[in-house]
Amino acid sequence: MEIPAILGGIPVRDTKLYYAHQYIDQDDIDAVEAVLRSDYLTCGPAIPSCEKKLCEVTGAKYAVLCANGTAALHIACMAAGVGPGDEVITTPMTFAASANCALYCGARPVFADIDENTYNLDPDEAEKKITDRTKAVVAVDFTGQSVPEDRFIELCRKHHLVYIEDGAHVIGTKYKGRPNGSFADMTCLSFHPVKTICGGEGGAVLTDSEEYYKKLLLYRAHGITRDRTQMEHPDQGPWYYEQIALAPNYRMTDMQAALIESQLKKLDIFAARRKAIKKRYDEAFSRLPQVTVQKEIPESDTVRHLYILRLNPDRLNIDRKRFFEAMGEENIVCNVHYIPVYWFPYYEKLGYKRGLCPKAEKLYGEEITIPFYYAMSDKDVEDVIRAVTKIATCYARN
Ligand SMILES: *Cc1c(COP(=O)(O)O)cnc(C)c1O
Predict the structure, then answer these.
(1) Is the pTM of this model over 0.90?
(2) What is the pLDDT of residue 1?
(3) Of 173, 206, 295, 363, whose CB neighbour count within 10 A is largest?
(4) Is the C-beta atom of 166 inside 6 A of ligand 1?
(5) Where do the domains of the chain lie?
């Protein structure tokens, strides 16, 4: 056994490896350059072209590109009619945006606990939180694994709730053989550079409903319409449009849309590589009693966005913080996904208390996100495995 780096030994790597990184090739650069040389930098043809490609890839009927994944969640809540006095059920094991979208609309996020094996929002826990005020459920496909769609569809139908899927991690994943994107009433995507498909910034809402689609278009851009059928006053001429609602400017540029469309052409190769790395990690880490590998439901054919390792506190002499630091000493820069949303001071001041979702809180205390992305080399993957194995073995408690 080598001496651990934290005790003065040689680190597993001499260059740093980060938890996520985008992959950009010459085709991506050419696609953006072509837009820069064209007439339209915003509101141009790259937007509908990319939206069409998104529909092809996800099987959704309509796609509305917007500024980022957070904006997508916001306009989805607006289209769902979420407003003051309403409650929106979501998971605490997510990025704050999944809950903030309810607050933006004046509604109250209600947190329901996760399934302790899959780490996804547990439909039974969500059901327990339903009240007369519940308007919508925001289910997050955590790390890219599909939530149990059948259960959430049934739950939302039974209680007349709008089902919004935060699919920021999910692109490429299939549930029961069908791509995630047309199960929920609206599915929100993100194209942040750490996600599977990169647009710099970017987001989209997918839907099969024409009614939601029209609202999403309106809420993407100021609440302004040029659609005659939506106008209240007589047409005053070719310049005429009306603002019929209040909404932000959440438009995406054509440069971003061109980049996203170019990236989407590579989704299959991205997916295959991510699946191969996930398989190799699962194999290696399931042999280590010091860690637990995330479980998956058989219905989800997952393209992972993140890879989470759960440390087993009774098999290790160090805590998560020390493990995280030890990985850093091996030049492997980890992360933690996520701090339970209601632990943030902003939420505390709104009256949320710790202890609300014990399974999510326990996971937070024990998890670590290790490097996982398309562009990792086989050597990078093996380095991560060596580092985890080294630390887990050095600090094993029997
Ligand atoms: C990234 C992410 C978002 C927000 O997306 P942005 O494009 O960064 O605004 C929302 N929800 C989850 C679960 C995410 O991971």
Answers:
(1) yes
(2) 47
(3) 206
(4) yes
(5) 26-264, 267-394
**Nearest-CA residue for atom 2 of ligand 1:** 168
CB of residue 68 inside a 6 A radius of ligand 1? yes
Closest listed residue to residue 122, CA positions, set 97, 148, 98, 101: 148
CATH H-level, domain 267-394: superfamily: Aspartate Aminotransferase, domain 1 (3.90.1150.10)
Report angle CA 30, 32, 33 to the nearest 5 degrees: 60
Rounded to the nearest integer, the mean pLDDT of the chain is: 96
For residue 190, give the ligand 1 atom closest to its CA: 7
Query: What pLDDT is attached to residue 398?
Result: 81
Could you tell me where the DSSP H helices lie in the chain?
26-36, 46-58, 69-79, 97-104, 123-128, 149-158, 210-220, 254-264, 267-285, 320-329, 345-349, 358-366, 378-394
147 backbone dihedrals φ, ψ, rounded to 5°: -70, 160
Residue of the CA atom closest to atom 6 of ligand 1: 69
Q: Name the one residue in this structure whose structure tokens are 């400017």.
A: 249
